[in-house]
């Protein structure tokens, strides 16, 4: 289990069941699901598919959504627990939502680290709740809030769920807050696309099935929409990313199966002729090279025996060595000071 001091200070409030409880769980919760006892009074909402998978496997009641609480009963929960997310818009949306969901005598517990901006978020909670307290606990800060103000301030105007139309020189697309890199085009993905057409044209048999593994809002899928394919699939672990991908597929009239999964674990083995992947290397705020291994392993499982994968990774990740466990052919296609693109074959 990875150490997370901010989560450790919240554990006592997840262990002690006190009426109906809601755990708002971002990606940092994954390593802690197994140490929190399941209870019929505890509900988990997460925007990460792997967190929901782990929670349901451990006997919890867990729901996968883009932190959409609109169907939940207002003023219902005696306790809400939240370890803050990476993105400001997500945290402010959760605070606004907690103000509606918390019972009149309920308590909202929030924790995070100083470098994550927790002190600012605790101050903002004071704009929303009447009663508040916070304290420093080692490197973490813990806040407890109750009694929503009658005229509570709406942080950030809370347009969190709105899809936004963004235009760049190379692509116009829908995206939304909460998805990684939601309002920009990733430089690594651009480098992958710079060689994608040449790799596609060099294949002895035109690929019929394409997978965008870890699709985000769908940049790789959209930039290869001119390729004739019988089947396109895009998958991601994040609820916000999948909403953007679906909107973009609809806008560009592109037939894409959009699937929620953890590195493609919900997809059938040996299904795809061509896989495009820009794997994540952060879990929460920490670098995790294990994620690269996971995406390589799943790519090997999902490829047809003669299939091809294009991977782009940060320059410091030793993909040349990591991929040897699963691939026979590992060819560098292009690189710059920041990224490397490889063609992989089994």
What report would you give on this structure?
This protein has 346 residues and is an alpha/beta fold. Helices cover 26% and strands 32% of the residues. The longest helix is centred in the middle third of the chain and has 16 residues, at 187-202. The chain starts with a helix and ends with a strand.
Produce the secondary structure layout.
Layout (H helix, E strand, L loop, with lengths): L4 H4 L2 H5 L5 E5 L16 E5 L2 H9 L3 E4 L12 E7 L4 H14 E12 L4 H8 L3 E9 L2 E9 L15 E4 L4 E4 L11 H16 L6 E5 L5 H5 L7 E6 L2 H13 L5 E4 L11 E6 L4 E2 L2 E2 L2 H13 E12 L4 H4 L6 E7 L3 E7 L1
Parallel strand pairs: 1-2, 1-4, 2-3, 4-5, 10-11, 10-13, 11-12, 13-16
Antiparallel strand pairs: 5-7, 6-7, 8-9, 14-15, 16-18, 17-18
Task: Spell out the key features of this protein.
seven-stranded mixed sheet; 10 helices; 18 strands
């Amino acid at each position: 289990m990875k150490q997370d001091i901010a989560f450790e200070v919240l554990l006592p409030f997840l262990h002690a069941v006190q009426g109906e409880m809601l755990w708002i769980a971002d990606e940092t919760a994954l390593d802690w699901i197994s140490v929190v006892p399941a209870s019929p009074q505890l509900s988990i909402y997460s925007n990460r598919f792997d967190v929901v998978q782990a929670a349901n496997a451990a006997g919890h009641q867990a729901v996968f959504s883009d932190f959409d609480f609109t169907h939940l009963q207002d003023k219902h929960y005696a306790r809400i627990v939240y370890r803050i997310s990476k993105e400001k818009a997500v945290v402010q949306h959760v605070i606004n939502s907690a103000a509606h969901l918390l019972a009149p005598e309920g308590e909202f517990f929030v924790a995070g680290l100083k470098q994550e901006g927790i002190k600012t978020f605790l101050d903002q909670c004071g704009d929303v709740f009447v009663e508040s307290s916070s304290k420093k606990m080692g490197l973490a800060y813990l806040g407890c809030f109750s009694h929503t103000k009658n005229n509570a301030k709406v942080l950030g105007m809370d347009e969190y769920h709105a899809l936004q139309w963004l235009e760049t020189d190379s692509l116009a697309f829908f995206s939304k807050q909460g998805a990684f890199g939601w309002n920009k085009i990733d430089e690594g993905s651009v480098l992958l696309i710079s060689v994608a057409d040449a790799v596609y044209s060099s294949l002895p048999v035109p690929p019929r099935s394409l997978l965008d593994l870890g699709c985000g809002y769908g940049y790789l899928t959209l930039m290869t929409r001119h390729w004739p394919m019988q089947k396109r699939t895009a998958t991601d672990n994040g609820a916000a990313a999948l909403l953007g991908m679906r909107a973009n597929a609809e806008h560009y009239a592109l037939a894409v199966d959009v699937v929620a999964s953890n590195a493609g674990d919900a997809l059938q083995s040996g299904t795809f002729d061509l896989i495009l992947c820009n794997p994540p290397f952060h879990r929460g705020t920490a670098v995790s090279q294990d994620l690269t291994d996971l995406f390589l392993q799943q790519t090997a499982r999902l490829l047809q025996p003669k299939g091809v994968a294009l991977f782009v990774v940060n320059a410091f990740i030793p993909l040349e060595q990591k991929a040897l466990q699963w691939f026979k052919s590992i060819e560098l296609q292009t690189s710059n000071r920041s990224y490397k693109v490889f063609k992989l074959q089994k």
